[in-house]
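Translate structure to sequence.
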């Protein structure tokens, strides 16, 4: 019985020790990111700094990643897009949702815009792309201390003739 208690205590001590080491190692590398997700480009996109390293920023705590920032807020984008698309939206009877996929290079230039929604009529899609491309210089995304190409995803929905971000 004494041997069993001693063995159990040793196992608990070992698990505790490895847990402390694991937690300490996770928090000790603040300058080095520990996890990265990248996007594989189906075809080359002119302006991308490193096609092998287009980073998808994940909302993880302490991931040491920073997404690219537009020169305007998302609220301003919604207002401006609704003004640009007002005529198209008032005649649109469908309710839709989708995603805008924006690729910002390591120098803060928006190099690609895609609208992921087959239901969105083409004139609207073209106007959305032109709007985003006309925003100007973005703040480049960062991975660790290095500026990198990043993907920004903005979910949207259209209800009752109004485009809004989710």
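Result:
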């Amino acid at each position: 019985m004494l041997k069993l208690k001693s063995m159990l205590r040793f196992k608990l001590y070992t698990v505790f020790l490895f847990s402390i080491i694991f937690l300490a190692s996770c928090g000790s590398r603040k300058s080095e990111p520990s996890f990265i997700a990248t996007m594989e480009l189906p075809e080359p996109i002119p302006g991308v700094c490193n096609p092998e390293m287009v980073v998808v920023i994940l909302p993880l705590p302490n991931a040491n990643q920073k997404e690219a920032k537009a020169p305007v807020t998302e609220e301003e984008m919604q207002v401006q897009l609704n003004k640009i698309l007002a005529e198209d939206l008032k005649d649109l009877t469908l309710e839709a949702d989708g995603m805008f996929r924006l690729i910002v290079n390591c120098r803060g230039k928006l190099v690609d815009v895609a609208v992921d929604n087959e239901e969105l009529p083409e004139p609207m899609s073209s106007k959305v792309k032109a709007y985003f491309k006309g925003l100007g210089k973005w703040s480049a995304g960062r991975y660790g201390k290095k500026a990198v190409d990043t993907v920004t995803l903005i979910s949207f929905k259209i209800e009752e003739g109004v485009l809004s971000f989710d």
